User: Fold these one by one.
Assistant:
Number 1:
Amino acid sequence: MDENKVLNPGHGIPDIVVGRLPHYLRALQHMALEGRRLTSSQELSERLGISAAQIRKDLSLFGEFGKQGTGYQIDFLLDQLRQILKVNQVWDIVLVGAGDIGSAIARYQGFENRGFRVTMIFDSNPAIIGNQVGAFIVQDSAGIVASIQSAQIRIAMLAVPAANAQEVSDQLVEAGIKAILNYAPISLNVPEDVHVQYIDPVIHLQRMTYYLD
Amino acid sequence: MDENKVLNPGHGIPDIVVGRLPHYLRALQHMALEGRRLTSSQELSERLGISAAQIRKDLSLFGEFGKQGTGYQIDFLLDQLRQILKVNQVWDIVLVGAGDIGSAIARYQGFENRGFRVTMIFDSNPAIIGNQVGAFIVQDSAGIVASIQSAQIRIAMLAVPAANAQEVSDQLVEAGIKAILNYAPISLNVPEDVHVQYIDPVIHLQRMTYYLD
């Protein structure tokens, strides 16, 4: 799991810090939508539940973004964070699995303006192939490696049953995918240069029940 | 965000450790399903991409679960982790939002045997109220506080648009909810005794694009 690396040797920035940057970016985007121009580590702290000192320390690893007394210019900090996270471009995403979760992802409007767009969706179920899901026609997984290679896509979202996830992951890696967001509730084995993040609601729920009486 | 607290003062176990326990539990459940009886920190390490030393250290905070040379008994460690995470019981969940994501959650089979079951689903859209989604009839959000209180539910999953999320969250807190898994792409303000975890695919994707060339 990426979240457990302490340091990413190629970059020198702790992965735990990298993991907080998208939260800063999202909060700043909300502020910009509210028409705001300036913010402070204190305000970000209140919105995010991360200490103001931590926020200042995290951001200082990348440069001098704020001025003492005046805080951060929202537009400037947004630009900088988009560059750091490389979402000052739009990344194409291949989605595998057109069941309930895959279909919800295909119709999700929340990728817009945040650096991503789904461009293809695949499934291996003959009953689903050819169906329209959101703006997409579900394609046959048999052609997935060739399609990804020809479109040079680097990022995949995986919404297949746990029993198929490793096999599909192997195909994605073969096709040149370097980042996988995995919704299947199982850990994937991938080469070291492929990044995997996991979305499993039960993992998040169990992390909270620990604290309940 | 829970993930950024360094220590949880009421328990003394770092939250980052608590966050890894559900991953250990999930891996052990897969091994048990495979009919396995013994495992080692080394094998868990390979499955999870967490160092064996870290796994041993994490588990040692809760007791003596393994023996040097023989490793961990899977059934025993499963029992212990379920107790620690309090999923040796089944928690009822209220689901708010019966759109694409909420419907996918309502139909999700992956909660079974992992400590949770969805028992109610609410929406405020008159066109959706009364519909059947999975095994549930969508109820009118107007009755949400009374229903939660009467069923004494402590955990909610929030799958409403970002613009409504804070308002719904306030109702959930009023009703006695102590843990919220939020799918809306916005940070929630909640009292200190309410836990929030976030599922926002873009946050995970942006964390990976940082590392892509």
Number 2:
Amino acid sequence: MKANPNFSGVIAPVVTPWGDDGAPDFDRFVEHCEWLLENGCTGLAPFGTTSEGNSLGLDERMEVLEDLVDSGVDPKRLMPGTGACSLTDTIVLTEHAVEMGCGGVLMLPPFYYKNPSEEGLFRFFAEVIEEVADDDLKIYLYHIPPVAQVGFSLPLIGRLMKEFPRTVVGLKDSSGDWSNTKAILDAYPDLEVFPGSEVFLLDGLRNGASGCISATANVSAAGMRRVFDNWQGPDADKLQDGVTALRKAIQGYPMIPVLKALIAHYRQDPGWAKARPPFTALPEAEAAKAVQTLADAHGFKLEFAEAA
Amino acid sequence: MKANPNFSGVIAPVVTPWGDDGAPDFDRFVEHCEWLLENGCTGLAPFGTTSEGNSLGLDERMEVLEDLVDSGVDPKRLMPGTGACSLTDTIVLTEHAVEMGCGGVLMLPPFYYKNPSEEGLFRFFAEVIEEVADDDLKIYLYHIPPVAQVGFSLPLIGRLMKEFPRTVVGLKDSSGDWSNTKAILDAYPDLEVFPGSEVFLLDGLRNGASGCISATANVSAAGMRRVFDNWQGPDADKLQDGVTALRKAIQGYPMIPVLKALIAHYRQDPGWAKARPPFTALPEAEAAKAVQTLADAHGFKLEFAEAA
């Protein structure tokens, strides 16, 4: 645990609902965000991978964030994704997030061009930081090589931390590779490290991680929160085992569509199931099977105060 | 060769020069575009991969295109890249290109999320086409799996052509795999197919391709144009051999930085060598070696009317 962390605990990369017109549905989005913060999440990372963040346009991202902050959610609990392929759009989104008072930003590396040099990636982040030029900017590096292909090497992380110690404060590791997370934790004890899956939550906490930022926190943050709150207690391993089993069961389905299908089912709101191309909604039969399987094997359900 | 092609011949994905402030340098850009059209190119594809197109911001792309059209270049000869990760930004860029009167657009698939379904990709393009809703929209599918990772399967190409026969008119194949290009040419004789490298120019033309869209056309379009103009003549193979050898020599260096280094050298304009992060300029020693090697082995040089 860090001395004065900007974030810790359970953070959800919030799924994005779409209206009948295909645009982001602000009302459903805000309602889901508020529910998450009341049901286990300590923070939210809108516009992550699970959020279909890169399927949102530049202006849409800023509009959705403004709506969320206007709704009354504390911006210090928000860590929006602001990394884009282009330096320019990354700066636009990052400046905007800082202006909105966000506690941090989750920043992908520029991911179109493959095998960039370490020097080129360093310069990209250096230019963003120097252009935004604001001490309130707190960057969480977003390492997700299975999707972005471009990632952060240990030396690059160290170089960025050394050059920008007050700005480059954390990292989300979605490599899915515990040995990589462990190596980062060992090398940089001052970095706020969040594994990208709750499967590594307890091991992470025992090795200095700050929590987790996980797709499935959209539907099962409460269990993760129990692990986080009790990680030094006698039941920690047992709590983690339950969380791990549920995660693995959900992972049997395409992640973004199944999360939306689960929310749609329990909210009795079929519109929630929509995905924006290139994603498609889970077919109804598969959605029904997911609901049933998770309920039978894990007692999984979602309880919404507003639901009928 | 198609009956009424929108494009044919040699098309350059124009490299983008950067000013001292790091912004796109409009004057250098327009000068280079005009020189290309006077020195072998039949068309231009700004904001392709070689253009560092995905390193330009949403607004920058539109501003640069407006400047280019304002400069007097015939927009019918322009095929700007308009494909982005998000549906929304792809629509914005595509509508803008059509409004500017561009002869076509070169459209990447949404490339952040990996392994999208064919249905999801189809819906993405369908939504773009239905939203832009303009008969003047002519889409060239941009297949470049080595970089974008996401590409176009033969069935997807056929489905898009069948559903949108007046809109989906062509494809750039930058797979680097001749057997893939050949399969597309054989399956879809009505499609305007452009291999992404001049190495396949003559083989392409003999099998129904429309020309090529190639990075190296930025510095060596004239030779490609000779192949294109004489592909049925007795010297075709010999002309192709020269073009292939030069391409392979240039490929020995990082493509975008070496093209800029060559232009900087022959224009006597060191500012041309700049690249935007995550790219970096070619180190001076390597640039000098490239100039010398290409001159010695291939008699390579660039002659600019305005140069000292």
